[in-house]
Write a structure and sequence with these properties.
The protein has 10 helices and 16 strands. The protein is α/β, with parallel strands linked by helices and about 300 residues long. Strands 3, 5, 6, 7, 8, 15 and 16 form a 7-stranded mixed beta sheet that branches. The chain has a 6-stranded parallel beta sheet with strand order 11-10-9-12-13-14, sandwiched between helices. A 3-stranded antiparallel beta sheet has the order 2-1-4, with no helix packed on it. Strand 15, helix 10 and strand 16 form a beta-alpha-beta unit.
Length: about 300
């Protein structure tokens, strides 16, 4: 049995429990890891509130890093004892043991927490950049550029040779500059502030914040077809904007590609805070508050073997 996060009813962070569940085992092409760190995402608290999935009970966690301790049939690229990070398609990564369906070696310079912060942010950012056709010479506007997905999008667009303008609170402007973006404040007057930097508007816009600015992004990008949101489903339907989710195909190739960028110091993703598994409720409150720069990560110890 392993300890894992679970909830049996929808509600606030207080419904989260640490329970004991049967050991998971990997299927064909999968690996099981002793989890050392697991990422916390907005989808976690949305699931907890019943906004995404009506099934009960539910486990949580789609991304984790740890040490391989069991491999499924057909796995030849990693072995027991290897450090890997990746996705748990079962959504049960916030646990002592987790099965990863997609995985890659942890870049040598990263610890487990740094690796667990990567999968969702880099996959979401890459998928969105691919959908927008961001390439060398493009000008991209990222609304909500200082969070984990926004930070990833800024840097990955820069690697492609794009110019990036990012919205954030003034306190995060220097941080955005350090990532290679030109910062602007969000709020009323956004269109004018962006046009001061890019008089002809931008080639593409990515909405990470979901702050009701899709009409302004459409104006700046000269059409809804040049805008993607990952945070405003209702607004996307209303304004004809693409709402990007993994259902339309995931950019899983980035897991194997990110190591080279990290080791060459062309990409980094800060871990805002680490918390033990038992403080999952606190992690949800911080995530739902929405003012964290970087990623919230749960730190988890390896399971203790039962004697005899």
């Amino acid at each position: 049995m392993v300890k894992a996060v679970q909830f049996d009813e929808f509600g606030g962070p207080e419904v989260l429990e640490i329970v004991e569940l049967p050991d998971p085992h990997p299927g064909t092409g999968q690996v099981r890891i002793a989890v050392r760190a697991a990422g916390v995402n907005a989808s976690d608290w949305k699931k907890r509130k019943g906004l995404m999935d009506g099934d009960l009970p539910q486990t949580l966690g789609y991304e984790a890093a740890g040490v391989v301790d069991e491999v499924g049939e057909g796995v030849a690229d990693v072995a027991v004892g290897d450090r890997v990070f990746g996705f748990s398609d079962e959504g049960a990564a916030q646990a002592e043991l987790a099965v990863l369906s997609t995985y890659a070696p942890i870049p040598p310079s990263l610890d487990f927490s740094g690796a667990a912060a990567l999968p969702a942010a880099i996959e979401t950012a890459t998928r969105s950049l691919d959908r927008l056709g961001v390439r060398s010479g493009s000008t991209l506007l990222v609304n909500g550029a200082s969070g984990s997905v926004g930070s990833a999008a800024v840097q990955l667009a820069g690697v492609r040779g794009a110019r990036v303008i990012g919205t954030a609170s003034p306190a995060n402007h220097e941080y955005l500059r350090s990532l290679g973006a030109e910062p602007v404040a969000y709020g009323p007057g956004l269109v004018g502030r962006v046009r001061a930097l890019a008089p002809d508007g931008v080639d593409a816009a990515l909405d990470v914040a979901g702050s009701g600015v899709l009409p302004q992004l459409i104006e700046l990008a000269r059409g809804a077809e040049h805008v993607v949101t990952i945070a405003d489903f209702g607004g996307a339907q209303e304004h004809g904007v693409t709402f990007s989710s993994g259902d339309a195909g995931r950019a899983l190739h980035v897991l194997a590609e990110i190591g080279e960028l990290i080791e060459s110091e062309r990409f980094s993703l800060p871990v805002a805070q680490t918390l033990p598994l038992g403080e999952i409720a606190t992690a949800h409150r911080l995530s739902e508050d929405g003012h964290v720069r970087g990623k919230i990560v749960l730190v988890i110890g390896p399971p203790v073997s039962e004697p005899g």
